[in-house]
Amino acid sequence: MKRFFLFIIGLCLFVGTFAQKAEEIQLYRQAEESYKIGLFDDAIKLLSDNIDFFSVRTKETAFRLLALCYLEKDKNTEAEKYIAMLLKQNPYYTVSLSDPLRFADMIERMKKGQVTITTASQQAETLDEAPVPVTLITEEMIKLSGAKNLADLLILYVPGISLVEGDEMNVSMHGVYSSSQEKILIMLNGHRLNSRATNSEAPDYRTSLDKIKQIEVLRGPASSLYGNVALTAVVNIITKSGKEVDGGNISVAVGNNNTIQTGAVFGKGGLEWDFMAWASVYSSQGEKRYVDVADEDFWGKIERPGYLYIGGYNHKPSYDLGFTFKWNNLSILFNTQYSKKVTPYNTVLFPGLFSYDKYRLINGVKPGRSRNATHAEISYENKWNKWNSKITAFFDIENSVFYDVCGDSILPEDRFLPSGDGEVIDENIGKDICDYGLYQVQSWSDYTYGITATTNYGFQINKFSATLLLGTQLENYTMQDNSVLVGDHFDRIILIYSGKNSALKSGNEVNISGFAQLKTDIGQYLIFNGGVRYDYKRRYNDRKLNAFSPRISFIYKIKNDMSLKVSYAHSFVDAPYFYRASTIETYSGGSKLDAENMDALQFDYSGTIKKWNLDYDINIYYNRLNNLIYYDTSKIKDMYSNAGELNLMGIEGVLSYKSLSSSAYLKMSYQRVNNGMNYTLTNKNINNVPAFMLSGMYSYSLLKGRHIGNLDPWVNITVLSKQYSPLIDPFLFRGQNNNVSIPDYVVPARAIINLGANYQYKQWETSVGVYNLFNTNYYQGGSCMQPLPQQRLNFLAKIIYKF
């Protein structure tokens, strides 16, 4: 921690030399005073003569004032010119209450015609210029979705993403998944949220939806810009600014299953500064379902009825706290998150019902896999002539607890006590004492710090605009400490491992990378976007990783409202530190694991039918994956290896409609495996992933007016084809003598409907959502041994007060 603060102090001293000069602020204020008293030409001249020398922050406000001046002079063309510059400078600009109506209307109209994102190329660009297929989830789409968490949003709006079950909330992209969500890079304002130890970031209640301005999803490999973990997709969560919030709100939501959620957002902004803070807390018992030994939900060796929890996040609630702060060219981000999902069955030995509430608290948590992560960064951005540069220092701390239950009751032949050499208690004593309430807890803490520097240079090639991006990143990761304990009788601690028998080796890893990207027009209709990134990693055991990640894309603008994209990209995700540094026998071979790789070829056709208010997007893709991590239980040594391969192709499409009174969104996807090896497959299908997926939402403004408020009912539906989910694990039992083996087990097709409404009146806003409207009993498989039951009919009601 001391090194981090010294590092930050040094950086602040460095960036302090580039502090904003007071002269440009004074110039802007003079122009603003001229505008207020009607001297529009004086304001225009003052700004136009000096705008090239303004900082990024002041330039944004200058574009706004220039547009306002030209609007007052009824010169709409010139006003639109500066609004376009403003939106390019700040794609997320939102009008304030003090802005004139004509200006606000022009901003909104131009936004609809030129929606911009920054994630795909690390520069502002329209959706049709993005080098890969992109899904943009706006604040309005979030409100009309009824989504309770990030996974709900991604599954509803992003083609190719589907739910898979496991010890944490998890999703797959194009059928690629693992025991936790570690194949998709999730970021907050460009800051990585994924763990360095496990690569995972659960898309659950650790992420508040109230703070989000929009979510930019790159549907495909993105290692050419973002390196490790960006294997199948990138999800960049963009927060609201203080100016956009311009006040605050507090919210309370309640639902069945003892569900409660509270939240608050506050924000303000001025000419030189902007501040936004948020807080969200979520707790739910989950659906508590009684299970008899004859029920389909029953699993276990010992035939004893009991209860299971579905969708529980409790005892220690999930939370998301943070703030953003900007002052001139300086920006600060701070965020701390926590979540832990309650598993329906115990996760070690034989899956079965267990008495969740009986087990003791360990480090403040009950059984489950919990992760607390804190993220911080400070950045400085400035522009010199045609160069726009940014330097960012970042710091991440993580504390994780894997609290796994072995079973409420353990048969004599299954009792054991894993113990290393030299411990006080011998493993043989496990036969006598580990008879019931057996559990194990593995916990660790780690931290990461580093620097990222990027620069953009704008120039022309044969009179056509071009942009060159150059960047480098240095990252230092340290597994600080870890511990393992074993207990029984729900409460006793039998053994805490000594340091020499630690389950994870402590160590340090260094990652150095450099990347470049060129984007240029080739003629009037063609755009080239190509990039490459090189990553060098020195692992804790001195093994080296060298990853080369190229991307090339051509965008052909058929018309202003129609484009065709062809792209190729290579991406990778390094094997998790948790696998590579484990000393547990079940992870043997982990230290030899290499990175998983993916090559993707995509053909994307998108456009707009303006007379029908329709937007469409069709994408055909081919993915080839190799070096996939494979766990072979038939081996005694090297159970983990990079032996997996997967080749598949698919088609996905999106159709959206937007009018003054209604919104509709429909997405579908179909995929088929060409061939694969040492991957979870049945015939030409990926296990636990439907070959066909369809989801959609519709909302209609039933009421709209100042005196009666706004009422927007909504409905969404998710349709999935059948899924292959073989029951073949030797630990699956329904009774002591009934080892279950059904290799051709299939989860039936399903359609789940959710229904709700949002109502807003003055400073108050309420929403109600009813989920799984028809109380469908359904299951979902994944990295667990068997498909898990999902929540039946449930509801959530929310009230918000804005100030």
Can you tag this structure with a few keywords?
803 residues, mainly beta, Serine Threonine Protein Phosphatase 5, Tetratricopeptide repeat, Maltoporin, Chain A, 2 domains, five-stranded mixed beta sheet, 40 strands, TonB-dependent receptor, receptor
Quaternary structure annotation: single chain
Number of helices: 12
Overall mean pLDDT stands at 92
Shape: globular
- What Rg, in angstroms, do the CA atoms define? 27 Å
The CATH topology of the largest domain: Maltoporin, Chain A
Detailed description of the structure:
There is one protein chain. With 803 residues, the protein is mainly beta. It has 2 domains: 2-114, Alpha Horseshoe (Serine Threonine Protein Phosphatase 5, Tetratricopeptide repeat); 127-375 and 383-472 and 480-802, Maltoporin, Chain A, CATH 2.40.170. It contains 12 helices and 40 strands. A hairpin with a 7-residue loop joins β1 (116-117) and β2. The model is unreliable at 4-20 (pLDDT under 50).
Q: What's this model, at a glance?
A:
By secondary structure, the chain is mainly beta. It is built from twelve helices and 40 strands.
Topology, pairings included?
Blueprint: H1 2-16, H2 22-36, H3 40-50, H4 56-72, H5 76-89, H6 101-113, E1 116-117, E2 125-126, E3 134-138, H7 139-145, H8 150-157, E4 161-164, E5 170-173, E6 184-188, E7 191-192, E8 212-218, H9 223-226, E9 233-239, H10 242-245, E10 247-255, E11 259-269, E12 273-284, E13 287-291, E14 306-310, E15 313-327, E16 330-341, E17 368-384, E18 387-409, H11 430-433, E19 436-461, E20 464-488, E21 492-496, E22 507-522, E23 526-538, E24 544-559, E25 562-573, H12 577-580, E26 596-609, E27 614-631, E28 640-658, E29 662-677, E30 681-682, E31 685-686, E32 692-700, E33 710-720, E34 723-724, E35 746-747, E36 750-761, E37 764-771, E38 779-780, E39 788-789, E40 794-802
Helix pairs in contact: 2-3, 2-4, 3-4, 4-5, 5-6
